[in-house]
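Table S5 (text form). Sequence records supplied for joint modeling of the two-component complex.
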Amino acid sequence: MRVLEPWLADPLAELLRESSARLALVMTSSGQVIAQHGFTRSLDVMAAAALGAGILATTGELARVVGSGRGFGAVVHQGSAQGVWLAGFDTPRGRWIGLVVFGRESSVGLVRMFFERFADTVTLVAPPVTAVREVLAEGFERELDASLRALFGRS
Amino acid sequence: MARLAADGVSLTVTLVIFGPSRSGKSSLLRGVHDRLGDGPGTVRMADATPFSPLDWLAIDLGVIGGRNATVHLYAVPGLAAYDSTRRLLLSQADGVVFLADSQGSRLEANLDALRQLQDHVLAREGDMRELPIVFLYTKQDLPSDLVLPLAALDEALNFRNAPSFTGDALRGTGVRDALQAALTLVLRRLAVTTEPADVAGFGAG
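The corresponding structure-token record, covering 360 residues in total, follows.
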């Protein structure tokens, strides 16, 4: 494992251990590598980072075109022997991207769950920033009721 | 924890379906999935493998309180072998839907599961009284001499007078009401108590 930011080492190790993932890469949204585990050649790291950042940027633009707002939170490519989980997350250092390669010993659900935990931890251990107080707008209960009525019907 | 993303756009709520073995947790998720699969909400199921001892479902709720809201539902088998998975899930839970088996013969199993839930909450240095929880008493479709009524189940399990419902996980009765009650509890709490520490900037999910 190699990390540009030392405080990333523990959360990344935990992600790999708990999700049984094979490879992991953390990069900025522009493809600059911040941490990696499992890649044996630097060329592979650079290629994966560039491709991963490109894929997320492309799907983000696709989301904009089809009216899905900010973009898709995560992208999964599932192969017969391996899968790739790719997701962006905001940190005090800006928006980062995680790329996780997993095999049959793991699953999308497991990787997703531990990736979210990893993302949570990164925010916790990163240098603090001043956050803006956020609250839900009024009327959420009425909206929730309407949403569930629409989804489930009146049963 | 529930996420009000710093982008001012999204909100993600995590609910854990908890209960004793064979109380209908996975059936509930699959029933919701079958029901909403062709509906307007975005629904995805986790791929179930022997290495993934959990079911997961994400439902797009649309705009709630000015945010694009998504609820993630997780269920893990009630078997003791999955204790660590349950603990992790509960550490991320914003609320719990406790699925209790209505059969009188399963009352002790329900109580055991409730005790496990309390242990898990304590392990995350939490307070059961602070955890949004609702009860759904399943298998009410069984013959009446086999199942306990709502009042008796509340008396035995629902010490905090939390919202409770009777239903049937297979057919989905009571499920919508239980989910709505749980989400309302979580969001009410969020609307009142959100502090900067709860505000994360994640779009992933």
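Note: The beta strands of chain A are 2-3, 23-28, 33-37, 74-78, 82-91, 94-103.
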